[in-house]
Write a structure and sequence with these properties.
InterPro entries: ABC_transp_permease (IPR001851), BCAA_transport_permease (IPR052157). Belongs to the binding-protein-dependent transport system permease family. LivHM subfamily. It holds the Pfam family BPD_transp_2. It is found in: Cell membrane. The protein is mainly α. The protein is built from twelve helices and two strands; from the N terminus they run ααααββαααααααα. The chain has a two-stranded antiparallel sheet. A hairpin with a 2-residue loop joins β1 and β2.
Length: about 290
């Protein structure tokens, strides 16, 4: 593998890692605050990509506004699942195993619903053709650069929200101790709603961005759910910054492994990293808190 190919794979890994990072942050927030290992998270990501595609192609709306509409649709779907499924399950004090099984069922429901409504074939956005940009002999697709920039902006916005707003401080308090947070007067139900809003927005944005660099297809989120969980575990469960770092590491390792193992073993690489981390450092690279 020559230097140019390595650099190309490195850039690809950063772009894919940026997409995984946004979705992984949403996943780690729902676990850190709601104690929910949501296996439907990847399919909500797919739903966001399809909502974006629908607004962009069927309604002819600009791709960036379409991503915003896709985020709104995904947040609405997540809030609906909270109202119908997760809130009643919390009231019944359902076990984590029960919640995992329900989330897998929800994932299958969303995926098959997408196939039923829009079919199983690949879709693509209505985008102008833009030439690749060349840096020191490395040709980088224009939309991959945009994906990285958008991910950085979204991560900065999340950091400011968590650190400098009342709802961000309330989310950190609920993640640390929900009973103590309730006693001190924090509206936990409001925090739960905001958690779904933030997770849904980031996840839908990740899905829309993934559609920019690949095709929009019904199983795209399902194939990313393992790298998402690997990122969350690698970075420390419940730590959004750790999830971002873990996602970038997973994205880079997956892409750099292609010349040696082939593209069909990318998921295997993510699974291997997750197993190694669980065996050696179960708490992850960083402390698993908000």
């Amino acid at each position: 593998m020559d230097l140019q190919q390595t650099a190309q794979l490195f850039v690809n890994g950063i772009a894919v890692g940026s997409v995984i990072a946004l979705a992984a942050v949403g996943l780690t927030l729902t676990y850190g605050i709601l104690r929910l290992s949501n296996f439907a998270h990847g399919d909500f990501m797919t739903l966001g990509a399809y909502f974006t595609w629908l607004a962009n192609t069927a309604a002819g709306i600009n791709i960036w506004l379409s991503m915003m509409l896709g985020a709104i649709g995904t947040v609405a779907a997540m809030l609906l699942s909270e109202k119908i499924i997760w809130s009643p399950m919390r009231d019944r004090r359902a076990t984590s195993t029960t919640l995992i099984i329900i989330s897998i069922g929800l994932a299958l429901f969303i995926r098959n619903g997408i196939i039923f409504i829009w079919g199983g074939s690949n879709q693509s956005y209505a985008l102008p053709v833009v030439s690749a940009i060349e840096f020191f002999g490395i040709r980088i697709a224009f939309y991959r650069i945009l994906v990285v920039i958008l991910a950085i902006l979204a991560i900065v916005a999340l950091h400011l929200l968590l650190q400098n707003t009342k709802i961000g401080k309330a989310m950190r308090a609920v993640a640390d101790n929900v009973d103590l947070a309730r006693v001190t007067g924090i509206n936990v139900e409001r925090v739960v709603i905001w958690t779904w809003v933030i997770a849904g927005s980031l996840t839908a944005l990740g899905g829309g961005m993934y559609g920019l660099i690949t095709a929009v297809r019904p199983n795209m989120g399902w194939f990313l759910i393992l790298p998402m969980f690997a990122s969350v575990i690698l970075g420390g469960i419940g730590n959004p910054y750790g999830a971002i770092a873990g996602a970038l590491i997973i994205g880079l390792v997956q892409e750099l492994s292609v010349p040696f193992l082939g593209s069909e073993y990318k998921l295997g690489v993510a699974l291997l990293m997750m197993i190694v981390v669980l065996l050696i450092r179960p708490q992850g690279l960083f402390k698993g808190t908000l």
